[in-house]
């Protein structure tokens, strides 16, 4: 449903009103896609052949299922940097794709038909045109086999999701339960499993589990879904009334952000706002062409009005850390692979782990700490009860059990985000936040990345002047002085600026008395 089409008032915004308006309008930029997909067919016989076993007929008999198990291995799972076999967490058998062949001449066209269906259901921009399937495993689930809740790892560059084709093999149970952003769904493969083939798909960051098989054998082909193409056209027209309204709000923000009057002094507008994306992305996949579903729709919408609204946007990874005492009395209170839970949070912090260019994912700024008040105001929430970091932690640093005292642990939560900045702001805000850092190397790397970013932009002289001047606004570490001292000779290897730009920055530092 489109948002109100009337332009927003030109009266100056309050911070909370601005945040709520931008959040609501971004939420309204929806797509047709879901986080999971499913379907079934009755005409599938892939002509399955397995090395060491031979041909497997359809439906797969219990005898052939047992033959497959004899030539398979117990499937492991990942825990941090380790690969573990533990049948209390994952109890299934696997055969590598290299040992599998689907010999039916029409099988490629059947795979394509299934791919067309799931990409449509997932709302992928461009459909299946820029998506390819990479065969991964054949999995055999016998009675009692299951896989506890987990998320798929990105197994290859460009992977964004998983496709499962459940071959015709009589079984009961083995349902796949998926959950994402508070939404749950159960997808069955057992109905008519003796006569038909079902297929399931989901995005890579969707939490899912395979519930125990209660009878028979559930046998599936799994595929990595890979994005292969460039950015496609935006999913929402630039004339969409929701974008017209959002453009008006952002333009007013850009106009008012630096207004210097008594009213604004007590309620300044933010230099940027953070909007949490629905999906979680790795460092390698955080760029426009690899965004999924609604994330892609919303970011492309903001990009389409960026110039007219005098705003810029960036992608980012936001991280929250919590430290405190653990629940339970000892290691026996936790299952293998289970993260510890914190009883009382003693310390917590939020920081921007990285900010990258939307188009190519190139790093611009990293490691910017936000104090509690900043994080509270800059991260857009639906309401006061909304926790932007809700969900399972992505990792922990466990400090262990010591004598009679309980253990402590640090949990961290990581979310991908869109950062929106009004035109009169720029990324120098993050340099200002980082200039007092004790990490001189990080400071200098950020400065270099920002210089390069603005150098490559058209009409970026003002931003470069601001950035060069910024180094004169506060203390700099000895490491930073060392780095800046290299500028006159142009010997800093990552700096691609011209001699004039290097000279201007060095001169600014000399005037400030930072360089001898």
From TrEMBL:
Query: Where do the TM regions start and end?
Result: none
User: One Pfam family for this entry, by name?
Assistant: 2OG-FeII_Oxy_3
| Protein name per Swiss-Prot or TrEMBL | Prolyl 4-hydroxylase alpha subunit Fe(2+) 2OG dioxygenase domain-containing protein
Xref: InterPro entries:
Pro_4_hyd_alph_FE2OG_OXY (IPR044862)
Question: Which residue intervals define the domain Prolyl 4-hydroxylase alpha subunit Fe(2+) 2OG dioxygenase in the entry?
Answer: 137-225
């Amino acid at each position: 449903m489109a948002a109100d089409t009337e332009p927003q008032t030109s009266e100056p915004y309050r911070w909370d009103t601005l945040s709520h308006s931008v959040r609501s309008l971004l939420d309204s930029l929806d797509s047709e896609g879901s986080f999971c997909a499913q379907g079934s067919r009755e005409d599938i016989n892939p002509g399955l052949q397995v090395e060491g076993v031979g041909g497997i007929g359809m439906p797969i008999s219990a005898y052939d299922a047992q033959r497959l198990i004899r030539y398979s291995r117990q499937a492991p799972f990942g825990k941090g940097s380790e690969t573990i076999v533990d049948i209390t967490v994952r109890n299934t058998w696997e055969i590598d794709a290299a040992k599998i062949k689907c010999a039916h001449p029409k099988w490629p066209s059947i795979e394509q038909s299934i791919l067309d269906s799931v990409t449509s259901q997932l709302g992928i921009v461009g459909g299946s045109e820029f998506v390819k399937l990479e065969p991964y495993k054949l999995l055999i689930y016998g009675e009692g086999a299951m896989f506890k809740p987990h998320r798929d790892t990105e197994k290859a560059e460009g992977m964004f999701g998983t496709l499962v084709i459940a071959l015709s093999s009589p079984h009961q149970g083995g349902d796949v339960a998926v959950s994402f952003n508070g939404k749950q769904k159960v997808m069955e493969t057992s109905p008519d499993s003796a006569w038909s083939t079902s297929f399931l798909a989901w995005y890579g960051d969707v939490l899912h589990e395979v519930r125990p098989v209660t009878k028979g054998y559930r046998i599936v082909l799994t595929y990595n879904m890979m994005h292969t193409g460039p950015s496609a056209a935006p999913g929402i027209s630039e004339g969409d009334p929701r974008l017209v309204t959002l453009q008006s709000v952002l333009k007013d923000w850009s106009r008012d952000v630096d207004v210097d009057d008594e009213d604004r002094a007590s309620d300044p507008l933010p230099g940027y706002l953070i909007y949490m994306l629905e999906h979680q992305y790795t460092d390698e996949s955080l760029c426009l062409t690899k965004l999924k579903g609604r994330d892609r729709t919303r970011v492309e919408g903001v990009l389409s009005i960026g110039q007219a609204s005098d705003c810029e946007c960036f992608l980012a990874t936001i991280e929250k850390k919590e430290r405190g005492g653990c629940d339970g009395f000892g290691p026996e209170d936790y299952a293998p692979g289970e993260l510890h839970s914190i009883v009382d949070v003693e310390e917590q912090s939020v920081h921007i782990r990285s900010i990258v260019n939307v188009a190519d994912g190139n790093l611009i700024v990293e490691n910017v700490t936000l104090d509690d008040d900043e994080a509270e105001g800059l991260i857009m929430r639906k309401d006061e009860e909304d926790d932007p970091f809700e969900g399972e932690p992505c990792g922990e640093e466990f400090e262990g059990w010591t004598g009679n005292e309980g253990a402590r642990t640090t949990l961290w939560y990581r979310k991908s985000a869109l950062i929106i900045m009004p035109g009169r702001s720029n990324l120098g805000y993050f340099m200002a936040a980082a200039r007092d850092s004790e990490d001189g190397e990080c400071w200098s790397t950020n400065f270099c990345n920002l210089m390069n970013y603005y150098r490559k932009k058209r009409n970026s002289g003002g931003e470069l002047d601001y950035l060069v001047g910024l180094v004169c606004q506060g203390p700099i570490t000895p490491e930073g002085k060392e780095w800046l001292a290299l500028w006159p000779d142009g010997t800093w290897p990552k700096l691609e600026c011209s001699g004039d730009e290097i000279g201007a920055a060095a001169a600014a530092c000399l005037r400030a008395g930072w360089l001898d």
